[in-house]
Amino acid sequence: FHKLEKWRKPFYDVLQAYENASVLLPAFYNTRNTDVSIRVKYVLDDFESQQAVYYFHPQYLINVSRYWLSQGVRAKRVSTGLILVTAALELCEEVHLFGFWAFPMNPSGIFITHHYYDNVKPRPGFHAMPSEIFNFLHMHSKGILRVHTGTCS
């Protein structure tokens, strides 16, 4: 949505598919995220949306990064997916992951995009996606969470 500088209404329209779901943003994870995350709040306010916007506390983001570094996830930044999985593990009794895969092909050998919303590849070393997936699979094997890799029905 071009950082919400022009595509405000289309962004709002897409969010309406999620009805009253809250929007959770890593606004203070890095300076590039801050402006666009705050614009999300302004867009929802301007269109009088009932959806709540929440931001991760900066210290929480630092703690999550430190924890995963101690678990062997070595990258410039952990992914927002890993941040959300971490929060879900802290808040939910059951966590099921769909759509998390760090490789160009799924387990069935079908090529897949890098993100659910585009296929822009990250810079090498920016995220440690294989390491993140390894940790998800390790937690899956211990029954901590469930990783689903098949097609959704």
UniProtKB/TrEMBL annotation:
Compartments reported by the entry: Golgi apparatus membrane
Pfam families (alphabetical): Glyco_transf_29
UniProt superkingdom: Eukaryota
UniProt keyword Transmembrane helix present: yes
Primary location class: Golgi
Keyword field: Glycoprotein, Glycosyltransferase, Golgi apparatus, Membrane, Signal-anchor, Transferase, Transmembrane, Transmembrane helix
InterPro entries according to UniProt: Glyco_trans_29 (IPR001675), Glycosyltr_29_Sialyltrsf (IPR050943), GT29-like_sf (IPR038578)
Membrane disposition: Single-pass type II membrane protein
PANTHER family referenced in this protein's UniProt entry, alphabetically: ALPHA-2,8-SIALYLTRANSFERASE, ALPHA-2,8-SIALYLTRANSFERASE 8E
Family, similarity comment: Belongs to the glycosyltransferase 29 family.
Protein name: Alpha-2,8-sialyltransferase 8E
